Amino acid sequence: MNDFKLEKRKYILGATVVLVLIVYIARLFSLQVTSDEYKSKADSNAFYKKTVYPARGLMYDRKGRLLVYNQPAYDITFIPREIKNVDTTELCNALNITREEFEQRMKIVRKSRGYSSYTEQLFMARLSSEEFAPFREKMHRFPGFYISKRSIRQYTYGAAGVLFGDIGEVSQKKIDKDPYYSRGDYIGTQGLEASYEEALRGEKGTEVLLRDAYGRIQGKYRDGALDTLPIAGKDLTLGLDIELQQLGEELLQNKIGSIVAIEPSTGEILCMVSSPSYDPRLLTGRQRGENHKALSTDKKKPLMNRAIMGTYPPGSTFKTSQALTFLQEDIITPQTLFPCHGGFRYNKFKLGCHAHSSPTALYPAIATSCNAYFCWGLVRMFSSDKYKNAQEAMNKWRDYMVSMGFGYRLGVDLPGEARGMIPNAAFYGKYYGNHWNAVTVISISIGQGEVTLTPLQIANLSATIANRGTFITPHIVKEIKGDTLPEQYIEPRNTMAERKAYEDVVKGMRQAVLDGTCRAADIPGIEVCGKTGTAQNKGKDHSAFIGFAPMNNPKIAVAVYVENGGFGATYGVPIGSLIMEKYLNDTLSEASKEKANAIRNKVIYYGDGER
To answer: How many other CB atoms sit within 10 Å of the CB of residue 611?
Structure first.
């Protein structure tokens, strides 16, 4: 029995030894034959693979004027394990930084996620040729430090900063998500730079450089046979007219607000002004960080694109959408008359209106911006036998609004778009149960109450009326070189209202310019259509306007929104008229230039009305 046990142990021990040998052999085979881990480490000692960054795509306006371009810049990088016997004082002098700055930069790099002493780290970024020259002359004295030729964005014009956006160093989160990026790469962080990052960035190339036994670069390996060339990013042509953009920014200086102009037939945005704004040239070069901090802490929020991020009550500009809904649902005809005795009166409830003739029909109601007319229209719709109850009528009303581009993001090619607010029956049911009717929510009929839109949505309303019921999703980019635009920026979208209803609204908007609240929008020789808006506010009312021209075959639709600007006719109408005149005539008349100067010089205190 004992002999049997010994014999069994011998076999077990032998099997164990054989198994261990097999494991070792398999591992050696893996390391020497199938794995390139050690080969990679050996290569890293013999070769230095230098990334060659592509030129970022350029941007042009609709007339071919260069807007955004590249200027050479240099990054200083280093590989920690290769730094030996560097005279730190001499290095600091060459880069014009203090010893404290040097230590602080090194500390930040070492604490950053993904740090490795074997990999290239960014030390300083975006040095100009002048800043870089002293370092280049002494670079041989700083082993372990390298140069990467990059480019920084430059701007021909000091306008449209919130549209162009910005580029900055890529985050670790993005690196983990997208293998294209590495530490120290730049990426679009805002505006068009972010939206069209994949088109603008291009493809990186590589230079394979040979090291000697001391790690010093000896030149290209095999005369560059293994190098890959970078592929430049794709250029963008924008729908923007930069001169129109400049005019808009000048008109809104010292004011808070927005101007959006759209080419109705294409959905291309001709100008998108957000005020206060900033000169995009502030966010270039080594001063970018300091300037960005100042802009981001400014209480006036110049980095915010109010055209797509600001949500406001549209005021009386919204009455056009109500007219379209009531006409299409056969609630009214253009001849339908409603009373207005100083406003809308229903039992003890009253909503005021300014003086005009009564009763009034649709066209003069649009022209004079009668509150009572559209209030009565909503009452008639919510009490119509067409619907089971007010809740069903409310949801039908909401469907019309959504079809016109309200309540949801339109899908503009810029990040950060807000959706605004269009209520439905369930929304009011939370507050009133089933005990509510048209009078409860009457403010929505005149663009107040719970209704909020972005200036872009208000401009799109104007473009849709100009097109008589269709619109193409508004977009900044007109063309991507060598590529096609997404389908949403090509295919038209239809609303629930038919062309006949739109023609009636157009007639009312034309009458508003001829003898209504938009008389100041008249441009000699051009048939302009418009609608004012005065949106109630806790302080002074907001001034709003929508318009388009010419009435037939329209070329431009515009929306203007000036916070605390008072009546729509005070700022909205004259600014909208100047934008349309400039675009259609390519210049302003002498009288219009005087008007523009007067508006430029007007200062509106933020939240406190006019000076």
So the answer is: 8
